Amino acid sequence: MSTAYDAERQVAVAAVRRACVLTSSVFNKLVRNETLTKDDKSPVTVGDFSAQALVNTMLGRAFPDDPIVGEEDSADLRDPSGAALRDRVVALANEALTAPLEAHEKAEWGIGGRALTADELLAAIDRGNHAGGRTGRMWTLDPIDGTKGFLRGEQYAVCLALVVDARVELGVIGCPNLPADPAQPGGARGCIFVAVRGQGAHQLPLADPLGAAPPRRLAIPAFGADPLNLLESVEKAHAKLSFNERVAQILGVTRAPTRMDSQAKYCALARGDGGVYLRMPTGTGYREKIWDHAPGSVLVEEAGGVITDSRGEPLDFGLGRTLGENFGVVAAGKEVHSRVLGAIKRAKEEEAQGQ
Ligand SMILES: Nc1ncnc2c1ncn2[C@@H]1O[C@H](COP(=O)(O)OS(=O)(=O)O)[C@@H](OP(=O)(O)O)[C@H]1O
Ligand SMILES: [Mg+2]
Ligand SMILES: [Mg+2]
Ligand SMILES: [Mg+2]
């Protein structure tokens, strides 16, 4: 029996798995030598571009009518000064696209066959230029989320979501460096997290996601991890960590926060490894991007949790490429979530009174 979004799930898992193989090999071969700085000062590597070319090529072949909201664009690669970078991206994307088919993959997704030209790959990257919006289908793609974690050899994630009429229906997150079992941090690494709305949240092994091993169904305890702790950003520029500290105090949290780059935070939360993902704006006017939260949000909801902004309002994926004015993100088990909203309210009142 086929279930809703079966085809989309299969293509998305295959695309994310291939992208994870690509980014892992980029890290091993290239990261230490070479990075490029984008205007927003975030380091962009050949990994981001080639992974976006790969995933967009597969989506474009499998679902030619679907627009994509992707983080990267090809401008730096089209610039004459970017010729060496472009050649490297073309080689890496083609290596990933032409790798032999796995049992769960199909040639009609544009893989396992001929290499593409530079023009075809740059056009694939730019399929990600969609402006977003409230109606119809669209994919969101963050080819490497947590670029800074990636460059440090720590957590990062390949993040893909299908949004239909502004509601996230499918989320797939690949975490090459995340331990399969949080109780064994030194054990095997590499997981894919998959959530389809109405069908639950699951963890699969990255090495063989659709193989014999049954997917592990994930559930967030309503009362959170025991003892409770916070999941938060590593980069101080990305979230107001001093505010988190005060919220933790008000909640009576005694355990140290877990700092982790990327949407791996949502994955940790979904499997009960950490109690609250709290991301408060730093006050710079930065707008959160939909690709940084779309797959994580459906993963959390399908694991039984709740995700809102810091006022308790739902995240709105229909506003364009961003979530609009930044009121932060709060994700947790149901009971914990309402306690966190209360603690945020109190911490904000204290701030307003200048305490
Ligand atoms: N100022 C500011 N405020 C909030 N968020 C920002 C900001 N600047 C960047 N970004 C986005 O943060 C994404 C990485 O988020 P993380 O949760 O991995 O942050 S952290 O690295 O753990 O601090 C990161 O995603 P990637 O670029 O894919 O790494 C950015 O989209
Ligand atoms: Mg970035
Ligand atoms: Mg990101
Ligand atoms: Mg990114």
Automatic annotation (TrEMBL):
It catalyses: adenosine 3',5'-bisphosphate + H2O = AMP + phosphate; adenosine 2',5'-bisphosphate + H2O = AMP + phosphate; 3'-phosphoadenylyl sulfate + H2O = adenosine 5'-phosphosulfate + phosphate. Keywords: Hydrolase, Magnesium, Metal-binding. Its EC number is 3.1.3.7. Mg(2+) binds at residues 71, 142, 144-145, 292. This is 3'(2'),5'-bisphosphate nucleotidase. Belongs to the inositol monophosphatase superfamily. One of its GO terms (biological process) is sulfate assimilation. GO terms for molecular function: 3'(2'),5'-bisphosphate nucleotidase activity; metal ion binding. CDD domains: PAP_phosphatase (cd01517). InterPro entries: DPNP, Inositol_monoP_metal-BS, Inositol_monoP_superfamily, Inositol_monophosphatase-like. The lineage of its organism: Eukaryota, Fungi, Dikarya, Basidiomycota, Agaricomycotina. Its cofactor is Mg(2+).
